[in-house]
Amino acid sequence: xxxxxxxxxxxxxxxxxxxxxxxxxHILHGGDVGPIGLLDELAALxxxxxxYGNTDxxxxxxxxxxxxxxxxxxxxIVVTHGDQFGSPTPERLQREFPDxxxxxxxxxxxxxxxxxxxxxxxxxxxxxxxxRFDLPASVGILELEPGIPPxxxxxxxxxxxxx
Length: 163
Description:
Blueprint: E1 2-6, H1 15-20, E2 26-29, H2 37-43, E3 48-50, H3 58-61, E4 67-72, E5 75-80, H4 90-96, E6 102-104, E7 112-116, E8 120-124, E9 138-145, E10 148-156
Parallel strand pairs: 1-2, 2-3, 5-6, 6-8
Antiparallel strand pairs: 1-9, 4-5, 7-8, 9-10
């Protein structure tokens, strides 16, 4: 199973997202969506599991939870924006969600793909919307197959700023 992962779109759904997510089976959105219609656009590609973030208004919050749990291909996945933990770290999220095998978060706009305790895959796909902190806009791809550890990669949507 191929999963598209994004966060922090803040109302901007770049055309590159549709290219990268062309063959995904499911989409996980880690919050700060922007207008709720953005999720409908993503749902045209694949089913979407999404959470609200700290900048999302009442229309988004009325449709989404702060934390979502989903099982895909036998993996227990938690999706959260993470702002409820300040500036979240993979280790903190693993302590908060000890039952999760995969944790997706956003908020920091900083891409992260790491293992915690050698068994929990934690991904922040970075910000897919407007660029912040001189970081490229980015998304993530997870490949899931029962009995095999998840494989993931971060995909830049915009180039790095020249040094």
